Amino acid sequence: MKKIFKSTFMLLLITVATANLFKASAQDEDKTKRPSPPAMANAKVGDANVVINYGQPSVKGRKVWGDLVPFGQVWRTGANEATTFETDKDIKVQGKALPAGKYGFFTIPGEKEWIIIFNKVPNQWGAFKYDAAKDFLRVTAKPKKAAAFNEKLLYTVNKKGAVSIAWENLDVDFKIN
After folding, report:
1. Are residues 108 and 165 in the same domain?
2. According to a count of CB atoms within 10 Å of the terminal CB, is the N or C end of the chain lower?
């Protein structure tokens, strides 16, 4: 009886593990087919490897700033899962210390100033459960008119530490080192 129970239990565990593996693979595969597919920006800044993972929405004829993305409200600064910002070394952001780690990356867009947020909880869906009490660092940056229209949200990081968030007719830059 014990052998039958153990065999049945092991078979059940294998079945559940296999089903979860296929489910995870299907979810990963589906991400590339999303209307806002996954995108990444990365660079080596000094000794630090910096990686930003985000969902890349498109304008699609919509009014973005102050409408699709309201001013004065926390934004995941991308689509789908919250954007993540990861560094393997301690860095400074706008002159303030940010230890090595992976962070949820959020912003509060404003017409004249943006708040850039590094939150201790990297894995979140959107900003629905965002908790300001878990912010590690907040800095500010000034938005400016983009040199060119960007249909898709685009993050860039260069080796000199310039980070840019560009979408529609707007650019927001901040400095890391």
Report:
1. yes
2. N
